[in-house]
C-alpha cells in the first residue's frame, strides 16, 4: 500500500512541476499590425490577414484564382486567323474579364432600360453566357463578362434585340439590327439593287426585235 502511495506522490509532484512551466511559457508574439483594432486596418493589413488565413491551404485551380493572377492561355498565332476579329477575341480574351457597352433607343425611360437589360441578361444566362449588368445612364448599360470569349456569342444575341441601338467593346461598335441608321443603310442598299434591275442590259431577243423594226423601216 505504501508503495502505491509513493507512486501517486511521484506523479503528483511531476504534475505540480509541469503545470506552472506550461503556464509560464510565453505566447507567440503578434506582429504590430495584428494588435490594431480591426476598424483601423488598412488595405495592406487586410491583405496580410488574408495571406495568413490562406497559409497551408491547398493551391487554387487556375480558374479559381483572381483574374490578375490567372495564367494567360497559350495561343498558337500560326493557327489563328488574324483577319477574323471574332476568332481573335475568342482566343485572346478567354478566361479574362471584358466590358461591353450597350445602347438602347432614346424612347425608353431608365426603369424601362432596367427591365429590358434584365431580360437580355436572363436570355444570355439561358444560353450559358454569364454577365453582370450595370445601368450607367437612362439608355446605356454595361455588361461585364468574366470570360471575355463569351462576348462574341453575346454580340450575336444582343444585335437581334429590337430595343438595341448599338454595342461597343474592344474599340469596336456594332449597330443593332433594328437601329434606324442600320435600317436606313439596308433600305438604301435594296433601292440600289432594284435600280440596277430596272436598267438591265437588253437581251438577245430584244436586240433581234430592234433589228427587225429597223429593216421594216
UniProtKB/TrEMBL annotation:
UniProt keywords, alphabetically: Chaperone, Endoplasmic reticulum, Signal, Wnt signaling pathway
Stretches for region Disordered: 184-217
Compartments where located: Endoplasmic reticulum
Any one GO biological process: Wnt signaling pathway
Biased composition (Basic and acidic residues): 184-193, 204-217
GO cellular component: endoplasmic reticulum
Broad class of where this protein is predominantly found: endoplasmic reticulum
Signal peptide per UniProt: 1-24
PANTHER family found in the cross-reference section: LRP CHAPERONE MESD, MESODERM DEVELOPMENT CANDIDATE 2
Family: Belongs to the MESD family.
Protein name: LDLR chaperone boca
Native species: Neodiprion lecontei (Redheaded pine sawfly)
Source taxonomy: Eukaryota, Metazoa, Ecdysozoa, Arthropoda, Hexapoda
The encoding gene: LOC107226550
